[in-house]
């Protein structure tokens, strides 16, 4: 379901379809039985939690968007962009999900 004792954890009606850890973040992609996805991102420096809807791509990545900020989650990295400019790029230390 995600990470124990952390906000990055799916609720009881969802299943974690991808779980990742970077040096600065915990990320979980939650899925329901209807093919909908949600993104939970926890910034480790201050425990700030972001929830957003997400979608999958044909290459097994997940994309979430909050206003103009786009979060791309793959087995290799968490990439955050605004207007096409990369503002954060963190390598995955651990990843479980599609594509791996």
What does this entry look like structurally?
With 100 residues, the chain is mainly β. The protein has a single domain (15-96), classed as Lipocalin (Beta Barrel), CATH 2.40.128. The protein is 0% helix and 56% strand. It contains no helices and nine strands. The chain has strands at 15-21, 25-31, 37-43, 48-56, 62-66, 69-73, 77-82, 85-91, 94-96. The chain has a nine-stranded antiparallel beta sheet with strand order 8-7-6-5-4-3-2-1-9, with no helix packed on it. The protein is globular, with a radius of gyration of 12 Å. The model has no long low-confidence stretch (mean pLDDT 94).
CATH top level assignment = Mainly Beta
Task: Count up the helices.
Answer: 0
Topology pattern, helix = H, strand = E = EEEEEEEEE
Q: Note the gap between the termini.
A: 18 Å
Structural class: mainly beta
- C-alpha Rg, in Å? 12 Å
- Gross CATH architecture: Beta Barrel
Helix content: under 10%
Q: Globular, elongated, flat, extended or rod-shaped: what is the shape?
A: globular
Q: What is the fold's blueprint, element by element?
A:
Blueprint: E1 15-21, E2 25-31, E3 37-43, E4 48-56, E5 62-66, E6 69-73, E7 77-82, E8 85-91, E9 94-96
Antiparallel strand pairs: 1-2, 1-9, 2-3, 3-4, 4-5, 5-6, 6-7, 7-8
